[in-house]
Each structure stands twice: as structure tokens, then as C-alpha cells.
Amino acid sequence: MEVIRSQKRTASNDVVSNPKIPLYLTAPPLEVRLEEFELFAIDRLRVLKGVSDGLARGKNPKEMDDVVDALWKEHMRHSDASEMLNKDIISHFVIRLVYCRSDELKKWFLSMETALFRHRFRLRNFEAQRAIVGEFGLPYKAVTGAELESLKERLGQVVRSLGQISPSVVNDICCVSVCFFSFLSFAVEAVYYKVPFEEVPDLVAGRRVLIQKGHAFVAGSQLVSLVVTQFRSHISKALILTNRKWMTTIREREKDRLTPIVEALSTTYVGPDYSQSNDYADISLKDIDQVSKSSFPLCMRHLFEKLREDHHLKHGGRMQLGLFLKGVGLKLDDALAFWRAEFSKKVGSERFDKEYAYGIRHNYGKEGKRTDYTPYACQKIISSAPGVGDHHGCPYRHFSEDNLRAALGRMGLSSRGMEDVMDKVRNKHYQLACTLTFEAVYGTSCDVGINHPNQYFEESQKILKSKTPAAPV
Amino acid sequence: MTREEIESREDESMMDAPQINKPKPEEFFNVNYLRIYYGKSNLFPYSDIHKWLSYGHDGKHPGCDEYYFGRREFSFTLENDVYLRYKSFKNASSMEDAIRSHFPYKIDIGAVYSVDPDKRHAYSQTGSNVFTPVERELVFDIDITDYDDVRYCCSGADVCSKCWPLMTVAIKVIHTSLTEDFGFKHILWVFSGRRGVHCWVCDPKARRMTNEQRSAVAEYFRVYKGNENNARKVALMGYSLHPFLARSYVDYLKGFFEGELQATQSIFSTKDKYEKILAMISDEDIQSELRGKWENSARSSLSEEAISLVRWEQLKNTLQSKKHKAPTLRMCVEEIVFTFTYPRIDLEVSKQMNHLLKAPFCVHPKTGRVCVPIDPNNCDEFDPLAVPTLSQLIEEINSGGSRMDVDDDSDDSDTSLLGKSVKFFRSSFLEPLLKSCKEEIESSYKTKIGKSKDSLSW
């Protein structure tokens, strides 16, 4: 794959316009514009993060099919089928390059791409599925004749053992209408493949196949397991090779061109950036204390309380809270007044003007290179490393269990709600924990999930204002 | 034998050990005995263990990997719970030397790694030279304390002849599945020394399984999903049992439940006991119906066992006629049988390659019993309370009954307490395993040579 500047792309002869899922076996001989390099990747990242979110929320396979369908249509679709395929392939390879660089990134990428592949496969019809299976070139044969006869009774037992009453689970098992009918009548399917049991671990784990002498007998409708295992194994190996190539040649060679883009992409936040505050969020200084209690997420509430208490915050805290307040609608003059009022109590107003005011102005883009800094998203906050004397970071990650429970208690969570939140924390789903907190505090569900403190604030304000339109909240 | 006779003997097997007194019956285990056991007494079968874990890589064939044994992790647990991990040995004699210098209370066997565990810090964490497990037997651990909610004779660390049959049934179910369903051939079952069994599946295919595949097999075996919060800990959904469960039920579980289990546990005989079973029936009317029958018949003159059997029949009949009421009743009878009898393996032990497991022929510090192999085809005969203890072995040496040379294939070793176990280990497990390993080494070597020959021809 060649990355070029602003030249028209020439499509290779490999591209075929049909609804195939590419297997990403080799980087295609396509040319990519530098702008597209990044943009395509960001769109695919939105899809992968949507998948991650759906899985973390415990959606069942059928729901995930719908999630993937919607995400793909929203971010990856193109009227021209060959353009769509190009974007699919290019974006995958770019993200592979980005996410091969650490074990944590690799693991995430592997899980999400595999899940994406699984659900895209399930959405295809049987013919398309068989074609995809064919592309893997697996040496597994269909079982026929006498062997099939001898297995029929037990294959039937397997089918019946999976029988459930609820239709949603029926859909879960079958993805093809032919199978649906034969399933209901508990007949054995027409086609079974004899594969080593190691190739279909999820079917083995769920006792969804007959196993004999090390072979699993996989029904046509269960092919997804087989191909997903293959896909996963291939991507896993590819990630290692890509990483090696990156470390040895690409990173250095591309240090002025692709490397900065690649390094930035792995921490890219793909939502609104809250650099422009909107109607809901023009707050004034006199309301700020009340607003901090009613609408701030836990991380900002903690920083705010500590600032009021200590009349000081270290740099990390000033950045995290300061930018948040900017996003919330605090104007520069109000911000300066706010911080001066607090800091003067500790260091005096002269020292504040000398040492701290500049930083605040810098945040608002009035100094230095005049970048209007954007408030931190959860991802950035979670990955920060607060040290001694710091109060920034994500409480769900950085607080001890006792401290977190105390803080959640002060936010008004019941013990039941707290247990749900702590459960998410234990599983390292910090943003989900915050989302659950939001849901518990406001008594409403938040399907999108919290991934930005300013989003938490805005959603909270929306709810509170809808309850009492006139009063300040 | 009197004290004077012992002390006056020139006992060659006591050469390295300090002078010991005649063992008190209650002292099953102590450091001195351990030193004898691992010392020159020829009790612990060092060379058999080494041969096993070398899997044929004995350096006698060009296709052998002479460093294979050296990449295996061992861990020692010493007196005072001092724990030494990542130990590795170049060969049998360095393993012997290490054991003889530490006399560990417990020896665990880990995985074969990509490099010597001893030297792991010399290798980076990323890139191609990473310290990572590459082979490890597929292992299972079954502990009778996991059955405490369904055994009434003992609890906790105790085990007796009434509840041990649960382990026997577990071995049968799992062993049959490992051989029939998964096609494994080289399986070693070992007594854990106190209250459970371990299983080592040593086929090459098994040793190369990934964590995901191990997890899949463990989940395949998993049926019981219990904790103190749910009453119905086995939920068999669907319209029939999966063939593996059906076979286990028909061949082993049903008979055991209706026969031996009723006799030893009498699971219906008191109100406490039968309420637990009634809670597994998800229909209040049926529960009340049965409860009514049983409360009234409490003053019967029948034995506990007979009462239990009668009530079981009543339960079956009632459920048979009423099972169409709800899908959760469809296999309620089977669920009850599974709850009481089906194997409960420790999933975490099986799922990860780097999990350590106690070595066979270790001695359990709390009981002094040796972790001897169990013959899966004869597991009914195995009695955990008849397993040789350390003190019995020492006494056997003292009495000079048989020459403790387990390398000697003469009839003597058959009659010694431990000799029988070692002989079984060798003939039933080790020899077939090594034969198959050597065949594999040879054939893969031939393939490699063949390939390189091809590459030369043009």
C-alpha cells in the first residue's frame, strides 16, 4: 500500500464490487492520499469503539449484529461499492499499523476486529458466507455417506440440546432461514464439516457441537465460529509481523510523514470536542458551586472540592479542571477571577498574577502559539498518572476502593447502585462505571455511555433543566 | 522391632540421613522423613520424572532438542512457606541435586518456556525473544471440598470412604470424555495427597493447546454453576442432553446416584436434606406436594437408605407426570442427579498454560501421603486412606523388608509400598508415552530432512 500526496488514486484490478468482507490477508496495491490515511482510520476507529462499547454493555449477538450494521452504515458506507471496499481495506491496515505497537493496543485491536468480522459475517446470507469460508482455503471436508449416517442420532441430540423456547435465542443460534425451519423440527442440518476441535473453541465451550476422537462436527449454520477462529489467528500473527516492521523500518523512515499521524491516532478521541460551549453551558461564577454539586462528573467534582479546600491545585489538576470549565462555558475573565480568588488565599494575588494567570490565558489560546486547547476526554484522563499531591485523573481508576465508595456515597448513590459501579471498576470499565453513576444520580439511562466529562455535564444540565426550566441549576 | 535392634543395624539406606528414632504413629510427616524420601533412599523416582518431562528428548536422536527439559519451570515450596519459582534444571542430576539441597515440602511443575526460566531476565519482553510458555500438559484439578454442599459425611479437608466415590465417578466421566470425545491417549491421573485428584493430559496436541483452547475444554466440562446465591445450581436447558452429558448420565451418574450415593449420603432422609433438593424444583406446587408426602412419613421404620430411595422414586414419578408444566422442569430429575454427582473441576487450573500443579510422587505435608498415580480403568479400587504415608515408607526401610531400589525390576519392587505405584507409572503411562514421543521426533525429523533435501534439488 502506498501513501502519496494529493494524487488521484488508481484502483487496482483486485477490487470487485460485491458485498464481500475482505480478509485483510495482504496489504493491497492501492494508493492512498495522506489525508485519507488519517480520515479513513478515524472512521473505522469510530466503528471499532462502537463495537467495544456494545460488547462492554453486554449486548447479545443479535443486538451486536444490529449495532455493527448501524455503525458500518454510518461511518464506512460509500455509494460506490469499490470505494467502500477500498476504505474498508485501507482503514484496517492503517489501524493495524497504529495498534500493533503495544500489547494492550494489540489485544484491543484483535478483539474488536474479530468481533466486527464476526457480526459482519453473521449479517451475510448463506451463499456469501460459504464464499467467505472458501476464501480461507480450509482443508475441512463435509461429512457424507456412512459416516454422516452413523452420527445422525447424536447430531440430532446436539440440536435438541440447544433448543430453547424464546425466539431471540433461536435467532442467536441460526442466521439462515433454512436452518430456522429445520431447527424447529429438530432435524439434523444438511451439511456438517469435520474439523479439529481446536479450531472451534467457542462451540466446544458451549457444547454446541458433537465431538468425537478429537473432531468436532460443525453445522453449516455454525460456520461463523470456524472462520472467526481463523480470522483471529491470522490477524494475531499479522500484528506481530507488522510490529516488527514498524520497529525496524517504518517508524524511522516515516518520521516526518506517517509516524506522527500513527502515534496520534492511538489516543484519538472520536467524539465532539467541546471546545465551543453551547447554550446549555454558559455558567457564571455565582452559580459555579451549585453547578459543581449538581452536574459535575466525579473527577471534576473532586478537583473542584479540593481546590476550594486547599486553595491550590497542581499542574495536572489545573489543566484538567481548567479546560473542563472552559468547555462548560466559563469565559476567560471569569476563569481568571475564579482561579485568582482561590489561589490568592494560599499564594497571594501577586504571585497568582505572576505565576498562574499566564497558564490560564494559555489554555484559552491567548498566549504562545495560541492553540485553543480542548478539554480532556475520558480516555486521556483515565490514562493520566496522578502522583503525590495530585487530584486529577479518573477516580474510578485512580482512587482506592474505600475512597471511591466514600465519594460515590457523597454523590448520593445507594449501596445497590454502588455495587454495580464497583463491579465495573473491578473489570476496569471506568467509563461504564461513570455512566452507571450518571444513571443512578439522575434516574435515567444513558445509552451512549459517558466518554467525556463535558458530555456528562451537558447531559446532566439537559435533564435538570427539563425538570425545572426556570430555576438555575 | 526394638529400638536396640534398629540402632545397632548398619543400615545403608540411612547413610545420608541423620539418626532417627522409631516413628510415632501420629507423626505422618516431618522434615527428617522428607530428607530420607528425597535422599538416597531411592523412593522418589527421579529418573522416571525426568524421562516423562523430557518427552523423548534424551539426546539420543539427531531430532532431539537437548535443551527441552531445561526450559521447564519447577517451583519449590519450602518449610515456612518460602516459595521459589522459575527453577529449571539442565538434566536429571541437577534436578536431583536441587531437590536434595532444599528438601521442598512441595514441588510444582509448570510450563515449558521459550527460554530457560532461570535465565528469563536476560530476555526482553517484546520482540521475537520473549519469555513465554510454549508447551504445557492439559491439566485438571478436582477437589472434594468443591462438593461440600452435597456431601454429608465430611466437610472441608476430610475425606472418607463414603464421599471418595464422588472422585471415582469424576475420574470416570472426565477420562471417558478425554479419550472418546477428544481423542487423547496419554493421560495420567494422580492422587493429590489428601482430598482430590489431578489429571495430566500429555499428548503433544494437548501440550501445544493455547489458553483459549484449554478454556474451551474446561467450559465443555463445566455444568455446575453454583454459589450461595442460587438454589438451582445446575440448569440443563434444551430438549435433550448433549451426547457427552447423556453418555455420562447413562453410563455413570444415574447408577451412582441411585445406588452408592443413596446408600452413603441418604440425601432425602431428613428435612434439611430434602428441602435442599426441593429447592431445585422450580415449581411451588410440586414442592408442596412432595413436602406433604415426606413430612407425614417421617415416622417410618425403614432405614435411612430405604427412605431415601422411596422418596427419590416419588420425586421422579411426580416430575415425570408434571414436567410439561414448564421448560425448567423438563430435565429436573437429571439436574438433581448432576448436582450431586457430576465432576466439579477447578476451571482456573486448566485455563492457563503458566498455572503450576503439584508433581506426582510428592508427599502431602498435612497427611504425609504420597501423590501416587491412580489407574482410571480401576479407579473403583483406589482407597485414599490406604495410600502409603511417609512414615510407613520410612518404617518399611527400617524393617529392611524389601530393597528400596525402584530401578530393579525384580519381584521385590512389586511388593514394596511405593514400588507398585512406580511400576504402574512406568508401564501404563511412561512407556507408551515415550514410544509415541520418539516416533513423533523421528517422523518430524524425517520431514525436516526431506524438506531440506527438496530445497537442494533444482
Notable traits:
heterodimer; A: 473 residues; mainly alpha; Transcription Elongation Factor S-II, Chain A; 3 domains; three-stranded antiparallel sheet; two-stranded parallel ribbon; 22 helices; elongated; B: 458 residues; alpha+beta; DNA primase, PRIM domain; five-stranded antiparallel sheet; four-stranded antiparallel sheet; 16 helices; 42% helix; globular; DNA primase (chain B); DNA-directed RNA polymerase activity (chain B); DNA_primase_ssu_euk/arc (chain B); EC 2.7.7.- (chain B)
Helix and strand sequence of chain B: HHHEEHEEEHEEHHHHHHHHEEHHH
N-to-C order of helices and strands of chain A: EEHHHHHHHHEHEEHHHHHHHHHHHHH
Query: Which regions of chain B are unreliable across 5 or more consecutive residues at pLDDT < 50?
Result: 1-20, 22-26
Distance between the termini of chain B: 80 Å
Provide the helix percentage of chain A.
55-70%
- The domain tally of chain B reads 2
> What number of structural domains do the residues of chain A give?
3
Would you report the number of β strands of chain B?
Answer: 9
Main sheet of chain A: which strands, in order across? 3-5-4
How much strand content do the residues of chain B show? Answer: 5-15%
Low-confidence stretches of chain A: 6-18, 165-185
The major pleated sheet of chain A works out as: 3 strands, antiparallel
Number of helices of chain B: 16
Overall mean pLDDT score of chain A? 82
Write the CATH fold name of the largest domain in chain B. Answer: DNA primase, PRIM domain
Radius of gyration of chain B: 26 Å
